[in-house]
Every structure is written in structure tokens, then in C-alpha cells.
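Intended use. Records like the one below are meant for learning the mapping from a protein sequence to its folded structure. Do not use them to infer anything beyond what is encoded.
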Amino acid sequence: MRSKVQWASAIALAATVLTLLFSAQGSGAVASDMVPILTKREPAVEFVSQPVVQPLPAEAVAEAPADSLINATSLSQLVSRQAIPQPLSGEMRCLAGAIYFEARGESLEGQLAVGRVIVNRAESGRFPGSYCGVVYQPSQFSFVRGRAMPAIRESSRDWHEALAIAQIAHDGSWKTPAKGALFFHAASVSPNWRLTRLARVDNHIFYR
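Structure written out for the chain above:
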């Protein structure tokens, strides 16, 4: 009798175990925990540093100085391409007038050398600080009469050249053989100045 009871208990226990196993597989909870899940691997994000070139605005080009845009191989070519500002300022009229009366008919280099003397004087601190002040300083330029210039033939080629040379002298856009000169006189006279002679250009001798 006892062995029958033990056998029956064993059979019941086995049935219970089998029931539990089959019910676990049917739910899917245990199976899903054990099977690996394949996921799509996203590519790594890469950042590339590249220089950014920003074009200059058109206004910056338009503001470039006009003389910096002139390419000339000779002083004559530079004169022909020179833009004269309008209206003409009083200072530029004084500078051009001095070139006109002192070096009219001479080479462009000779006119420029005369113009640079006036510019150098105005910048030196030893003379009046303006072109008109330099030109009208007493006893400096023989063409000045009573703090006035004679009449200028403004339609003439000589005046147009003097205007262009005055602008070049003012801008310093062409070298002169009398660099740094502060004084000059006609080659026909000998004032015996105790100054450093720099050069003779056409009919003038230049000193500093």
C-alpha cells in the first residue's frame, strides 16, 4: 500500500513539473530573454572643419583709393590716366598753379620735382603747413604778386598737365630724382646756398 502511494506521488510530481515547463515555453518570456536581439548599427557622426572664404563686399572694392588702381609704366602714362577731382580745391589750385608758373613747358619729371618741393615744405614743419601757405609765403616764389597769381589759361594743355602732376605730387605716386628737396633755383643763377645739392632736373637745381 505504501509503495502505491509513493508511486502515485511521484507520478503527480512529474506531471506538475511537465505542466510548468510547457506553460513557460508557451508564454515566450523566458525565450525572449535568452535570444540576442540584432540592431542596425548607425554610422558614427563625423565633423569636418573647413575654412570658409567670405568674399569682400562690393563697397570695400569701391572704396579703394583711385591711385592704387592705376598701373603705369611711365610718368607720361600716369599723367594721361590721372583723374582730377572736381571741383578743384583751393589747396590743389595753389599746388598746380605753382607747377604751372615755375615749370610750364619743362618735362613732366621737372614739373613733378617742383611740385614735390611744395608738398615737402608743407609737411616739413619748417614752412607753412598748407600748399597755399607755402606758395604765398613772402619772398619765396617770383610769380606771386601781392599774394595773388597771374591769370591761368585753364583751357591749355600746360594747365591740364600741371593739374595731373599736382595730384601725383600730392599722392606721392611717382618718384622724383630730387627726393626730399625743400629748395630749388633756376640753373641760370648761382645763389651760393650752403645746402645739400640733390639733383638738377631740366632748368632747376634742387637742395635740401
